[in-house]
Design a protein that fits this description.
Elements (H helix, E strand, L loop, with lengths): L7 H11 L3 H10 L4 H13 L9 E5 L3 H12 L3 E7 L3 H14 L2 E4 L9 E4 L3 H12 L8 E4 L10 H5 L3 E7 L15 E6 L1 H14 L2 E4 L5 H11 L1 H16 L4 H22 L1 H4 L3 H4 L2 H11 L5 H15 L5 H9 L2
Parallel strand pairs: 1-2, 1-4, 2-3, 4-5, 5-6, 7-8
Antiparallel strand pairs: 6-7
Helix pairs in contact: 2-3, 10-11, 14-15, 15-16
């Protein structure tokens, strides 16, 4: 190790770093294999010089909905520059885009005028709008070498074919998370699924790594079922809970009372599932095989719109995989009208 504190070598280093002595530094490096003193000086200088971090890519966000509102700030916090937020011409879209752009210190642009102005374009549109958005963007020149993502969980990168034909690298990059107004999830806890061409996938891996999140490859053919997994993990849980609210009203509870009553058991059930798995988290009359209780449930739930059908479907699903003391008897019970 070269010691520089205060001696002649330290003075030489400071002169070379601060000034005009770049050529002596080059000579030191070139001659270091011959003259030990040059080697020591060159090593000390190079180790003490600050390392420049490579600039991160610039990004255009296409869309300013719930996903973009969460994704944009996370990308900025990870060191990415958001150049543009492009939105449709509706008043609500323009308003959301302006708010997001202000937060990100970006410019806004009409979707009709959007193009390959940044290194990366990240399309945050609904599934049904993606094909038309890709065709619209592809009308602009300059796509060669650009990276284009969309964030649909169900659709593959093939929907971006018009942009790929123009020379861009494309991928679908989907965050498995629910995004709703007023609630911002931690992006470093969100798993991302990616598929696409190798260049776009490599860039996606780098971005997700910078977000501190997990990324994994998904096959194109698997995307519909993968997305259905997301539906079972969030919106269909909410659908089950709103059915429970209808049942609660039938029992004389208000919606707010029902939510308070359900909250502790919901939290504990999810905790049990995460920590111990489905079978260990499963409890209640179906597991115990309490036939008369299930029969009473089925009878009374007929008074609650839609609840009996949901109950039967969930019981049938439970009997496929979860422990039950009287599986066959319960299945026969479900067959009765």
């Amino acid at each position: 190790m070269v010691r520089t504190g205060g001696g002649p070598l330290a003075n030489q280093i400071e002169q070379i770093r601060s000034s005009q002595l770049r050529f002596p530094l080059l000579l030191c490096v070139l001659c270091s294999s011959v003259f030990p003193s040059c080697s020591a000086l060159a090593s000390a200088i190079l180790s003490s010089m600050p390392r420049r971090r490579a600039d991160k890519a610039t990004i255009t966000l296409i869309g300013a909905g719930n996903l973009a509102q969460a994704l944009g700030p996370a990308l900025k916090a990870a060191g990415y520059k958001i150049d543009l937020v492009a939105a449709r011409e509706t008043a609500s879209s323009r308003r959301r885009a302006a708010m997001l752009a202000g937060l990100l210190e970006a410019r806004t642009q009409s979707l009709n005028n959007a193009g390959p102005h940044s290194d990366i374009l990240w399309i945050c549109h609904t599934d049904d709008a993606l094909a038309e958005t890709a065709r619209l963007l592809a009308r602009k020149p300059g796509w060669m070498g650009k990276i284009v993502f969309h964030s649909s969980g169900a659709l593959t990168s093939d929907v971006l074919a018009p942009l790929k034909r123009r020379g861009s690298h494309t991928a679908s990059l989907h965050p498995m998370m629910t995004f709703v107004p007023g609630a911002t999830p931690r992006m470093d806890e969100v798993p991302f699924a990616v598929e696409g061409d190798s260049r776009a996938v490599a860039v996606a891996r780098r971005i997700v790594g910078d977000l501190g999140a997990e990324i994994f490859l998904i096959k194109k053919a698997a995307k519909p079922l993968y997305h259905a997994l997301g539906s079972f993990s969030s919106p269909l849980i909410v659908a089950t809970l709103v059915t429970a609210e209808r049942v609660g009203r039938g029992a004389g509870l208000t919606a707010s009372q029902t939510r308070r009553v359900m909250a502790p058991i919901l939290r504990q059930t999810l905790k049990n599932y995460q920590e111990r798995g489905a079978a260990a988290a499963f409890s209640g009359p179906i597991k115990r095989g309490d036939l008369n209780t299930v029969l009473r449930h089925l009878k009374e739930l007929k008074r609650v719109p839609g609840a009996s059908e949901v109950y039967r479907a969930l019981v049938k699903s439970a009997l496929m995989d979860l422990p039950s003391a009287k599986r066959k008897e319960l299945m026969r019970l479900l067959r009765k009208p």
